[in-house]
Amino acid sequence: MNAPGLMMRTDGAVRILVNSNPAAKNAITPALYDTLPAALEQAAQDPAIGAIVLVGDGDFFCAGGDLRQLATRRALAPDERRAKVERLHDLVRALRACPKPVIAAVEGGAAGAGLSLALACDMVVAADDAFFSMAYVKVGLSPDGGATAFLARCMSRQLLTELCLLGERLPAARLHALGAVNRLAAPGQALVDAIALAARVAAGPVNANGRIKVLCENAGAASLAGQLDLEAALMVQSQGDDEAQEGIAAFFDKRTPAFAALRGAAAAGRREE
After folding, report:
1. Is 60 exposed, middle or buried (0-12, 13-18, 19+ CB in 10 A)?
2. Mean pLDDT on 224-234
3. How far is CA 93 from the centre of its chain?
4. Could you tell me if 17 and 49 are in contact, meaning their C-beta atoms sit under 8 angstroms apart?
5. 55: β partners
6. Do 172 and 131 form a contact (C-beta atoms < 8 A)?
């Protein structure tokens, strides 16, 4: 599945999605609004895929929205502007709703809505010379794409306010120290390291991984009572799953669980249908 604005390839059990608009530092194109959710859904439905990596084409992750398009929004009615913003928010929702873990590989930088897309992923691997920026204020805009929500989970209100009001670049190392970046990579190696991390995730139990993603998504806003209820419901599902049967048997047999074989059997079953 190759489409304007998006390229796709597969490395073992890892699906790699490339936002391709290098002439504009991979600024978000209208095509991406349709192709990225469709590609995530395709990967979610493919039993051979265990994890996904999102990366920019070349040496920059994403410069955010295309200012040439944003400059025309003033001529639109407010409800039309809202509809345009919701297209971006649908990308964020698609990343969060995908049942398979998504890892961002950030080279160069992630600015504006590009920062939102990176933080909407489940994990972030960034080159140690990359930067992140809430640059909206520099062009007279306020943030969108959920970046304020994501960043508020790892930093104080005061620091978040400073980032938004000044729009200054935040080094990847700072976000790593704050917990928003999982791994720092040597320059030019973010994708390699992200694929390696995704391969480790993909070797695990795909159904349990999806349930873990739901729990982690919910944990920040849930009450203890609500989270206990959700944990109980998902544990009930997990205990009845073939993955748990294989994982527990492997523990007692002192061997590595064959979770990939379960995924392969599911893929073979789909081909026979």
Report:
1. buried
2. 96
3. 10
4. no
5. 18, 105
6. yes
**CA 227 to CA 236: how far, in whole Å?**
14
What is the pairing mode between strands 102-106 and 14-19? Answer: unpaired
Strand 14-19 relative to strand 51-56: parallel, antiparallel, unpaired?
parallel
Is 75's pLDDT higher than 90? no
Query: Do β-strands 6-11 and 14-19 pair in parallel, antiparallel, or remain unpaired?
Result: antiparallel
Q: At 99, list the tokens.
A: 């049942």
Q: What is the average pLDDT value for the chain, to the nearest integer? A: 92
Confidence (pLDDT) at 181: 97
How far, in Å, CA of 202 to CA of 32, rounded? 25
Confidence category of residue 67, pLDDT binned at 50, 70, 90: confident
Token pair 């005061």: residue: 158
Q: How far apart are CA 163 and CA 151, in angstroms?
A: 10
